[in-house]
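Case study: Cold shock domain-containing protein.
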Amino acid sequence: MNRKQQHTTLSNITLEDYIINNSANGWLLQVAPAITNYLQNLTSKITDYFTVIDWGNLLSNNNRQEGTVKFFNKTKRFGFITTDQKDIFVHISGLKDNIRQNDEVIFEIETGNNGLNAVNVRLANNHH
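Here is what the predicted structure looks like once written out:
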């Protein structure tokens, strides 16, 4: 059987028939464990790779935002920073510098229990 005839023959049978036919001669039964082992090793290597990455640092560098303090109430210990897209909640625990209304700030965004939170908030002119 030439290559073209073989291709035509394979394209006319279902995957289920192909597996049954090839399992009968033992080929698939020999290859399947090797494929399974290869995929398990590959999965393990991918998992190891992603656990080595410092995701916090990577995300924080790509997550840097700029905005203006809309208001901040020291007594209530929270406020909001306005960006081009929206207002972001900021709690006093997320501050690196003291801030007040209309200050230009840089910060990072984290997802909190109630939405987005500004963290590592610094005055823009004090940024190192």
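For the exam, be able to explain this: The beta strands are 65-73, 78-82, 87-91, 104-112, 115-123.
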